[in-house]
Amino acid sequence: MNVLVTGGAGYIGSHAIKQLLAAGHQVAVVDNLYRGHREAVVKGASFHEVDLADTDAIADVLSQHDIECVMHFAALAYVGESVNEPLLYYANNTAGTISLLSAMQTAGVNRFVFSSTCATYGEPASMPIVETMPQQPVNPYGWSKLFIERVLADYAAANRQFAFAALRYFNVAGCAADGSIGEDHDPETHLIPILLRVALGQLPAVTVFGDDYPTADGTCIRDYVYVEDLIDAHILVMGKMRPGKPLFFNLGIGRGYSVKEVIDAARRVTGHAIPAKIGPRRRGDPPQLYANADKIKQQLGWQAKYTNLDTIIQTAWQWFQSQPHGYAD
Fold first, then answer.
1. Mean predicted lDDT score pLDDT of the chain
2. Residues designated as active site
3. What is the third-level CATH fold of 2-173+224-251?
């Protein structure tokens, strides 16, 4: 299949390119390189430096490569930043996706795999989270993604040829098992990369944002899904979508790890002390989020292969040791 990957110079998008190419698909990539890395785009994909807001340019890329399906990863994804700069998130994430869909309509492309998020659920009343739970985000990032889910549903109702899936991620973690590509953000807000930078001596300590949450050890709990497992789900879903049958799936491992548990795992994997200090809570952080991913397992047969946190962190540690300054190396 001819696939367009948006945000392909980013962390998750670059892993999608790698696995799509390995599966025999033809891949074109669009990324504005605002926070992505040109070096992350795996050889064999056709790269176009284009912003999603440029509807005509996106339509040209779609037509040029005879695209049959779009995997949409391009988004801003910092919860704290979204609280401080909500307009930026609605412009980039929500309006940018509408521009992309308009370009797809012009080019006659009707298959769409959307990178959604567990942040659309807000603070659920119980755990684990199932797809039928109310979606009431507590930050603009979550709202920017939930609005897109609604846009997709409405567009599919109007365009009977359009097929889509919305995959609600939990915390994506780890790097390519072969060490070829990894995770490199600036600024870095993801817990595991920060821990590994402390282990490398690049940061003095990790800050734990709050230890007074209503959890067993007082720190936030999250579900960490391995990035290659995540992309396997995308490729599987791509072949299963049908017009008039939208797919909504959680992607997670089905259990949560607290911040303190993740720190302990990183200490085991790296053999470093990794000093930690307690800081104030971040606005918009729910106490716990972890998935029930039974729906996609029952309907499509997908489940995460890597559920041991130490193993997931080891894949990232391999990347960080070989590329201590990320793609700048």
1. 97
2. 141
3. Rossmann fold (3.40.50)
